[in-house]
Amino acid sequence: MNKLILIFALTFLPLPSLMAQIIPKVYTKGAMKDMGTAYDLKVWLDSLPDKSNLFAMGPYDKMKGEITVFDGKPFFATAFVKDKAVVSQNWDIRSPFLVYSNVKDWEEFNLNGPINSTQEIEEKVAALAKDKGYDLKEPFAFRIAGEFAQITAHIVTPRSPKIEGYKPDVKSQKFFLENNKGELLGFYSENHQGIFTGSKSFVHIHFLKEDQTFMGHLDEISTGNQTLKLYLPRKQPVVRTAVQVNDTDFSKGRLGNIQYIDLNDLVKFHGHLCDGLVVGHLALQSALNELYPDGLVDRTNTRIVSKPSPCLTDAAIYTTGGRYQFNTFYVSDNMDGLFTVQRIDTREAIAVKMKKGVKPQEIDQLGSLAVKGELSACDLDKLKGMEDNFTEMLLSADPKDNFTLSELPDFKWNPVLKNDYIKTDILNKNISKCQ
Ligand SMILES: [Zn+2]
Ligand SMILES: [Zn+2]
Q: How far from 364 is each of 211, 300, 332, 338, 399, CA to CA, in Å?
């Protein structure tokens, strides 16, 4: 889920709407320039948090070969014997550096030949991306598919006699392929030289043959007059998750201390990222946007009633500034919806609900078993996976699609003190790991 948190950090206010469009982020682990002669392994691919629609590349193990992940399939290639590439698939592989990105959707373009170098690929990709409004200061993945007239590619080989496949004075095996169908995966960046691109290049490109009998690092290319398909990552919607709040500026101070609160802040306060917290955060953003149309939430002027869930109550008090002891927060199980939020000055009150069917029923079914202590260690992990997917869905959708707001002209503030709700998110704290 760390990936999600990073996505939030990329989004900015002010808030014209809760949605933004971003190019799928490119991540790196380790760096080419730091490999030295030891080739310490910096990433275990199996540990990457999200393998869906994953695209990645790097060396395989201690220069035993090449890794290319194509759309969630982890290929690695070795060439311990001259002219003999061996391509396999496994997540249980490691790399001294890796560049990767999860790309769900690609936009297709025609790429006309002839192209006679990786440099030309770099130029054409940059020109198209710029034309499409990409910020070339941010790295991105690209793919080129079709039939390639000539490709020269290499697979690196081990540099130390201690590593399987070592041959003295051989650092890689070169392969020459003619009229091969397949696909190039590339990463473009103007700011990662020595990290995942060479010192004179803005691209790192690998080739996978269509029949998957060859995969390697692209050195030279000549496409003839073939028209190829070039794919760029489609921008993905993300929810802007920050709330702009106004508070007093010291213990006896005046109103005017303006800050942003984002989901990361809320996660620290609450203890973890969970679906309920995201539900609360998005629901409150929607309601507060309605109460404060200029986007600045006065936390000295807001009170709230929350459903008792540990996630919702934390989102409620953190975001609105409502507190029990000042009669600006209480909990009720007796309301239709997640929260009722009220402006104290105008008495305007808004109830916010999650639409029916938005949350997968199985999450609630497994959740109630977990509360009863009836869920096995492995089923708890399964539930977490389902909640994470639900969270991801919420964060990539327009909150309008998932939440409804209603004005409550007759709302009565009716605080009750009740402190025997069960804190359900700590009941399984001592359960063992799934074996
Ligand atoms: Zn490479
Ligand atoms: Zn929680």
A: 44, 35, 20, 15, 21
Which of 46, 47, 5, 45 shows the shortest CA–CA distance to 25? 5
- Measuring CA to CA, how many Å separate 313 from each of 252, 310, 338? 27, 5, 10
Q: Which chain residues have CB less than 5 Å from ligand 1, an ion?
A: 217
The confidence band for 18, taking pLDDT boundaries of 50, 70 and 90, is: low
pLDDT at 397: 83
Tell me, in angstroms, the distance from the centre of ligand 1 to residue 60's CA: 10
Tell the CATH topology of 240-426: 60s Ribosomal Protein L30; Chain: A; (3.30.1330)
Q: Fold identical between 20-237 and 240-426? A: yes
Taking the domains of the chain in order of start, what are their residue ranges? 20-237, 240-426
**Residue matched to tokens 């050195």:** 219
Ligand nearest to the CA of 56: 1
Does 20-237 carry CATH code 3.30.1330.80? Answer: yes
Global confidence as pTM? 0.62
